[in-house]
Design brief:
β2, α2 and β3 form a beta-alpha-beta unit. By secondary structure, the chain is α/β, with parallel strands linked by helices. 43% of the residues lie in helices and 17% in strands.
């Protein structure tokens, strides 16, 4: 199909529809409301289910019910709304039902503002609800990638009977870029065998996250942890490496922050500094082994600079992966501010002055750094 000029929110909504989304339940909140609005029009046109609930709490429990019935279902929200949905996410994790969640992040904590942020990292990768579980978390950095990862989220949710999140900050939700939408997939002809679809002629299916006995609940948790290990080991780790082969400082960033950091890396490369970018695409499972392998190239890699639009949430995962083999400094902006390439360039130069001043001096003698 030909490329179209698409806004991120619209692109993710249409991608979900074309991936086979049968039911959508949500509640409007900026900066993702256009996603809900697009679903309101298109789902009705296609004779699928759309319902604007009275709250995020109601919406997530509707998602739970539809998922238990075997429907391909999703919701979307932004940071405070995702917080309200966490109890429902935990119920779904404990019940092993698949669903897709799109989180278009905004500034916080609290009501904050409607500007782009990455401060939901901990919320979705570490505590998407109570209990010992992780959803799959995918982080796009372009509108095209937002489309592709939304389709992938439906595939992964169904494959592993799990929650799959696509998290984009407000900038990706609001920006417009040329992108290509996938072909429309046919809707499933029958429900999966585990779904609650009536039990005439077969044993009852019971879907619940309630286990009154401690031994029963522990056994469920053992099975859940085995599924999470399977996801980690089954090739579901996704990342991008850019100019890391000879890099002495590697910038680690995701989403919009990575997009800005790549501009800085390209400029500094042109100025003669061996800088690279490592971009996690799956925030869970996190590409820990791949980062660890980079860190083992010491002394060629002298530092890992983490850049985020928060106070340093992914920073802890990067430091865990690096394992103390190299310094892991941090540069971040908060409150909905997107860092500029010039800011990241300045921070990279500052780190070079600390870990490799001779390299910085040689680059200055070659081509000037702005």
């Amino acid at each position: 199909m030909a490329k179209q000029l698409l806004k991120g929110n619209i692109a993710m909504a249409e991608a979900a529809i074309r991936a086979g989304c049968e039911a959508y339940f949500g509640y409007p909140i900026t900066p993702q409301t256009e996603l809900l609005e697009h679903m309101a029009r298109r789902m009705v046109e296609l004779d699928r289910v759309f319902l604007q609930a009275e709250s995020e709490v109601a919406a997530v429990n509707m998602v739970y019910g539809a998922a238990a019935a075997g429907a391909k279902v999703m919701t979307s929200s932004s940071s405070p709304g995702i917080s309200l949905m966490q109890e429902g996410f935990s119920y779904m994790a404990g019940s092993n039902v698949p669903a897709v969640v799109i989180d278009v992040m905004r500034g916080g904590p609290g009501l904050g503002n409607i500007q782009p942020s990455q401060a939901d990292y901990n919320q979705v990768t570490k505590s998407a609800g109570h209990g010992d579980f992780h959803p799959i978390v995918l982080a796009p950095s372009t509108v095209q990638e937002a489309i592709d990862l939304t389709v992938l989220a439906f595939d992964l949710a169904e494959k592993y009977r799990t929650l799959a999140f696509v998290i984009a900050d407000g900038a990706i939700g609001q920006m417009m870029e040329p992108a290509e939408l996938p072909e429309m997939r046919p809707l499933p002809e029958k429900r999966p065998a585990w779904a609650v679809t009536g039990a005439k002629g077969r044993p009852h299916n019971v879907i619940s996250s309630l286990f009154m006995g401690a031994e029963q609940l522990e056994e469920m948790n053992i099975q859940l942890q085995a599924k999470l290990r399977l996801i980690e080991q089954a090739g579901e780790v996704r990342y991008e490496s850019f100019e890391v082969d000879d890099a002495e400082i590697v910038v680690v960033a995701f989403g919009t922050a990575a997009r800005v950091a790549k501009t800085a890396v390209k400029h500094l490369r042109a100025a003669g500094l061996p800088v690279g970018l490592f971009r996690p695409i799956s925030l869970w499972p996190f590409p820990e082994k791949q980062l660890s392998q980079l860190a083992r190239r010491i002394p060629s890699v002298r530092a890992f600079l983490v850049v985020e639009m928060n106070a340093g949430q992914m920073l802890h995962d990067v430091r865990e992966a690096v394992g103390g083999r190299a310094p892991v400094p941090f540069y971040g902006r908060m409150g909905g501010i997107i860092p500029l390439p010039e800011e990241i360039e300045a921070e990279i130069r500052r780190q070079y002055a600390l870990v490799a001043p001779s390299v910085l001096k040689e680059a200055r003698h070659g081509r000037s750094i702005r």
